[in-house]
Design goal:
Arc Repressor Mutant, subunit A, three-stranded mixed beta sheet, 6 helices, homodimer, Dna Ligase, domain 1, 2 domains, 6 strands, DNA-binding, alpha+beta, transcription (chains A, B), 159 residues, 45% helix, Fur_C (chains A, B), transcription cis-regulatory region binding (chains A, B)
Chain lengths: 159, 159
DNA sequence: TTCTAAATTGAATATGATTATCACTGTTAA
DNA sequence: TTAACAGTGATAATCATATTCAATTTAGAA
């Protein structure tokens, strides 16, 4: 953790930005909640717990800054809010997401599934790929099981 | 064109919605601008040309409705607005996009590039894929050429 | 056709996320 | 020390989208 903060600090400095206490607190929240896909508001509430004096505007500014530096990726799952997702250290590409249309859960896939597809796009469309966004919409493992269980008990009145 | 409108009409009727003049005008605009990725505001302005009495709220409602019926896909390229893209007739999956980070142009790929990847996701992650969103960010053919031209003329003062 | 209930509309307003403004503070470097 | 200046928090402004509501239109029933 400290190592990653140190690294982000260097990234900031390299563009003559500072790692202020507010920015550090924000980064720590992102690191501690790496699994989640927090909105700016979510981040704000979590940062407030450690640094109650921080303002919402600062959180937005920090997230925007981290986004420019490619420390986080700004993503959008179609609800009205942007979410911020830490990029894995050294990751060249954005990771993929599995969004469940039943329960709304979001799972991440770190593996790069698109190597071949990107080559195809570069070759066939002459498009020089720099990054990608891939999201699958469907039904997660848990909801699939629930669906099976529900249909199995069909006919036996349970309520 | 008429054929496609007829088909959308049937889809609406099957859920007991009506193809009102306002909805028809909106659909026509979408059909006539199939190449583009129009925002709600864009659609509104274009529909106004044929049906000046239409309200913005109606356009939003219509686009939302068409989105539910999977006639259009609501997409988001990271600027603050949703864009609406007609789904090709009979297309099971959403098509892909190539977004140029230089000039902002958006190209579409109709081919389904993800057959293999989806099988992998279903097998390895147990996730039942219903749809996907895939966008590549990079540099389009035109901007690549311009970059080459610019670097070639480097040193010769041209202005 | 006439009637009726439900669907749809436009205008206006409300909402909610994000951005801009601005006065103030802390930091840096001469 | 002081003079920039980056960074901050509170607040107001913006902008896309959703909602409300009274008026209108529509598809069938009678």
């Amino acid at each position: 953790m400290e190592h990653r903060i140190e690294r982000i600090k260097k990234q900031l400095h390299s563009q003559s930005y500072k790692l202020t206490p507010q920015r550090e607190a924000t980064v720590r929240v992102l690191l501690e909640n790496e699994e989640d896909h927090l909105s700016a508001e979510d981040v704000y509430l979590l940062v407030k717990e450690k640094a109650p004096e921080i303002g919402l505007a600062t959180v937005y500014r920090t997230l925007e800054l981290l986004s420019e530096l490619k420390v986080v990726d700004k993503i959008n799952f179609g609800d009205g809010v942007s979410r911020y997702d830490l990029r894995k250290e050294g990751a060249e590409h954005f990771h993929h997401h599995l969004v469940c249309i039943e329960c709304g859960s979001v799972e991440e896939i770190e593996e790069d599934l698109l190597g071949d597809v990107e080559k195809l796009v570069e070759g066939q469309w002459g498009f020089q790929v720099k990054d990608h966004r891939l999201t699958f919409h469907g039904i997660c493992r848990v909801c699939q099981k629930q669906a099976v269980a529900a249909s199995a008990s069909e006919g036996n009145e349970e309520n």
